[in-house]
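User: Assemble these into one structure.

Assistant: Restating your components, then the assembled model:
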Amino acid sequence: EAQVTQNPRYLITVTGKKLTVTCSQNMNHEYMSWYRQDPGLGLRQIYYSMNVEVTDKGDVPEGYKVSRKEKRNFPLILESPSPNQTSLYFCASSFNRQGTGNTIYFGEGSWLTVV
Amino acid sequence: SQKIEQNSEALNIQEGKTATLTCNYTNYSPAYLQWYRQDPGRGPVFLLLIRENEKEKRKERLKVTFDTTLKQSLFHITASQPADSATYLCAPPGRLAFGKGNQVVVIP
């Protein structure tokens, strides 16, 4: 079954304690992306990756890091989480075929609370 | 800069009527636009894709149009039902950034 899997789904953590949210896809997609969603602000892109070892900033990258060492995994790292990073996070993936229309598949979301 | 804009105000509509949502784009010419549905707390789910050379696309009670002159895509839900209540997002090609989405509330 085609899947984008995020972990953890729910996490409460303290300010400053480094955490990683993992994302894995089993569809051999080149493209992966992280979004955060806050009430009234829609889905805002944090980072995206067009392929292995290729990452780029989205609209709200501050306070986050990513890496793309393998095609299937795209972890989101919060080196020193702060309360303003409390949010619902989504990972997504798709093929990267230019001009053909690439359906985006989303994970189930990770609810993160920083206290 | 390239922009995708949707009216972020909620659209309240009576059951059975047609809901129409707008996605406007500026400063570029996307080869296609995708439309997604998102329910609260869930990831968006793909609905329809329309290419720039297609005037209209349909899927069951959904219809999408693409007007490259107006730089706009319209998304219609005909014979709307309470189960259609959700947020609908449009997404252009490229880095897959989304508009804010349009919330639809269908009133029984």
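Chain B has no helices and ten strands.
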